[in-house]
Amino acid sequence: MAFRFPQIILFLLAAILFCPSSYAEQKPTAAQEARKTAVEVAVEGMSRAAVAGPTKISLGDKATLNLPEGFTWIPAKEAAVFMREIGNYVDDEYFYGLVFK
């Protein structure tokens, strides 16, 4: 008695071997690369400007933020660049930065 592959295994092998090449990984376009680079630059700017807690952060003449330990604050200028690069609207009058844990 000869060994026979189960039908499901034969089906999966056929699907893998005859899969259209459109599913293959495609190289990003120049626009996608430029956007990726712009986001990376924004993230690097945020990393350089990051302020780790615990500390007090002055939010202009509006308030003081008591940033606890384990949290990081990104100043408005650097945070706004990042937010815009990922497609968000930023109102400079009311945007004071980002806080991450």
TrEMBL record:
It holds the Pfam family DUF2167. InterPro entries: DUF2167_membr (IPR018682). It comes from Salmonella enterica subsp. enterica serovar Hofit. Keywords: Signal. It comes from the Bacteria. This is DUF2167 domain-containing protein. The lineage of its organism: Bacteria, Pseudomonadati, Pseudomonadota, Gammaproteobacteria, Enterobacterales. Residues 1-24 form the signal peptide.
